[in-house]
Amino acid sequence: MLCVHCNEVNSDLSTFAGDLVSILEDSIDSHPKWRTRLEDWKINLLIVARECAVMSASDF
């Protein structure tokens, strides 16, 4: 069972992940030489956000 605040935290993490994707995509367009590195960061950050979203409050 999810804690009372878990849905709020998951929503905040989702918003944060979306903001990161937008920022990184804008950066990729502005700095094409950094494309591979920025795409790797985007993937890694989304993985961490997903892991945080599914972990229990005590593990968080």
Characterise this structure.
The chain is an all-alpha fold. The chain has one domain. The protein is built from two helices and no strands. The chain has helices at 6-30, 35-54. Helix 1 (6-30) runs antiparallel to helix 2 (35-54). It is elongated and about 45 Å long.
Low-confidence stretches: none
> What's the total count of β strands?
0
Q: Helix tally?
A: 2
How confident is the prediction overall: mean pLDDT?
77
Number of domains: 1
Determine the structural class based on helices, strands and strand pairing: mainly alpha
Give the helix level as a range of percent: over 70%
Order of helices and strands: HH
Rg calc: 14 Å
Head-to-tail CA distance between termini: 15 Å
Amount of beta strand: under 5%
Oligomer: single chain
Name the shape in a single word: elongated
Largest sheet: none
Chart the SSEs and their pairings.
Layout: H1 6-30, H2 35-54
In short:
This is IREH1/IRE-like N-terminal domain-containing protein. The chain is mostly helical.
Give keywords.
60 residues, mainly alpha, IREH1/IRE-like_N, IREH1/IRE-like N-terminal domain-containing protein
